Amino acid sequence: MEPTIAVEELEGKSPDIKNSRESNKLLSVIDQRFEEVLIVAGFLTFIILINLQVINRYVLPFVDIANITTWTEEISRYLFIFVSFLGASLAIRKGESIQVNFLLDRMSAGLRNSINIANTIFMVYFSYIMIRYGYDLITFQLETHQSSPALAMPMAVPYSAVPIGFTLILIRLVQKFIKDTKGIHLKDGVLGAVIAMVIIAPAILMPDHKITLALFGYFILFILIGMPIAFSLGVSTLATVLATDAIPIDFFPQTAFTSIDNFPIMAIPFFIAAGIIMGGGNIIRKLLKLSDELIGYLPGGLALVAIATSMFFSAISGSGPATVAAIGTILIPAMIKQGYSASFSTAIVATSGSIGVIIPPSNPMVIYGVVSQESISKLFIAGILPGILTGFALMIVTYFISKKKGWRGENTKFDMKRMLSAAWDAKLALLVPVIILGGIYGGYMTPTEAAAVAAAYGLIVGFFIYKDLNLKSLYQCLSKAGVTSAIIILLIVMASIFGRLITLERVAETVAQFVLSLSDNKIVILLLLNAFLLLVGLVMEALAAIVIVTPILLPMALAIGVDPIHFGLIMIFNLAIGFVTPPVGVNLFVAASTAKVKIEEVIKGNSVLLVTMLVVLALVTYIPDISLWLVGFMK
Fold it and tell me: Is the distance from CB of 330 to CB of 344 less than 8 angstroms?
């Protein structure tokens, strides 16, 4: 009887076991896909809404769909804020962030684990503060009955993005903490807690008036110990505020919302989505084919094709690393196969990819425009000539290097018929910059609307014409775009919080006075600015650098009579060079990983190209008309 009872017991329990497994599987799917599904749905919604706004304006101007321009923009902005915080949570789960690791990577595994634990403690506490005071902000909105202008929606709804977003961020931080601490020694964990207490001790003991010292001291410290730069900005500001009571803490969640409740910022996720969608399919291949027919017959044909295609694709993606990834996957192996050295092949793709942030549209230009409150349209048009000049300068140098080395393409002469055929075949790709720039400068669309139209155009071409896009790849593209853009948006949020103390302490004026005390010569000051920005580009990612240093350096540039649009190009060009200089050169690492080449080899092949970039930088700096000539034609 006993065996029978045992079997009956097992049979009785088996449905429970099965249900438990199904529940665990469902929870696992939710854990893995929760943010992704909402991000993709959000992206599709605001791409559709902004395109409806444009369509209603020009295609159906006689139909006013319930004041569509107002309510579509309002819904899109609020959805964008939710999606941004969801993307930040997903980025933490995926371990993606902008941070400086060169010091952390040189530490022992035990010490690195301890410092990561300390960083997590600070980030968790910061998230808790944002949740706590974010909830208070929602309560205030409900008590005061504030509503949105277009839809009369209670403002508590959009403001809830902050506490909800940081709740998810906190959960992902805790999950990552549990995962990272599995198997580490107890002493490393204890040391991490001790490091956190040692770091925060000065904030408790520091005099109230040492605001600037605390702010920048903590910021530099957190960057050096590998905390993501966005959190370095936020946590350093929080530590300073706790030590000095410089501003109310409830300012933090309010700024987290208002700093990105901004329609122009939405151009960033749209351009990123457009670049990702069009960078992995037939569009990039057709651009490569056209470039090959145009200049592939010259010495260094494929290398010249890499530069030319980078210039074409720059007018689509707005991103240096995206340009390198799209082009390098195809061209680097082909160049090596044709006899080019692996180091030069990788270096030329990495360097030409930096044109992606100079030729419009450009994500760094959007960020600079938002931070400096300058016209993004003017910044875009100002980047055209510097971008073209950079491309041609790299081509000339590459031509002579290749001629000396004997590197030639497969085609030996130019064929007009083949070129025209390739141009016709690439017509849909060539239309993208026409749509974006023509829409903006023709006065038909704002940069954000043009970016949304470009994203929709990429979807239509990929799904219905080239058919290299399906539902699965669309999901992956938009999920990736959500994470990439969220990392940038979180940086803007934290920089806005950080910037409040910079403004309060008049840091920009102090720096300007110091530099101007060294020299009143404009040429010398511009040289010092370039040297400083090149150094910043060595150790900090471009987008992070723009949001941090623009409020500090722009007043100085204005004081010596530099046009703010011209200064924006100077800054972005300097930081573009940072894409191909170690230790943070993103393009170098993307290209090196694509080619499976050591980073040291890429740097060796990049030396002459880097000098070329510096020469063009000097021209852009000291000849303002290179940037401002086309701007002068704008109304």
Answer: no
CA gap 398, 47 in Å, rounded: 40
The amino acid at residue 180 is D
Query: What's 77's DSSP letter?
Result: H
Please tell me the predicted confidence (pLDDT) of residue 5. 47
Tokens encoding 6: 């045992």
Is the distance from CB of 383 to CB of 571 less than 8 angstroms?
no
Dihedral of CA 492/495/497/501: which sign? negative
Q: Give which of 326, 364, 345 is closest to 574, Cα–Cα.
A: 364
From the number of C-beta atoms within 10 Å of its C-beta (0-12, 13-18, 19+), residue 425 rates as middle
Query: How far is Cα 430 from Cα 569, in angstroms, rounded to an integer?
Result: 25
Cβ count near 203 (within 10 Å): 18
- How large is the angle between the packed helices 267-279 and 427-441, nearest 10 degrees? 170
**Amino acid making up residue 315:** A
Enter the pTM of the model. 0.84
DSSP sequence for 440-499: HHTTS--HHHHHHHHHHHHHHIIIIIS----HHHHHHHHHHHHHHHHHHHHHHHHHHHHH
CA distance 465 to 58: 24
Tens of pLDDT, residue by residue over 546-564, are: 888 898 899 889 988 999 9
Structure confidence at residue 158 (pLDDT): 93
Using 50 as the pLDDT threshold, list the residues of the chain that sit under it.
1-11
- Distance between CA atoms of residues 74 and 150, nearest Å: 7
Using an 8 Å Cβ cutoff, are 580 and 530 in contact? Answer: no
- Cα dihedral sign for 469, 49, 544, 381? positive
CB 117 within 8 A of CB 193: yes
Reference 586, options 274, 323, 318; nearest CA is: 323
The CA-based angle 161-163-165, given to 5 degrees, is 60
Distance of CA 291 to the CA centre of its chain: 27
d(Cα 394, Cα 392) in Å, to the nearest integer?
5
pLDDT score for 542 = 81
pLDDT in tens, 116-133: 999 999 999 999 999 999
Please give the pLDDT value at position 283.
81
Q: Cα–Cα distance between 417 and 116 in angstroms, integer?
A: 60
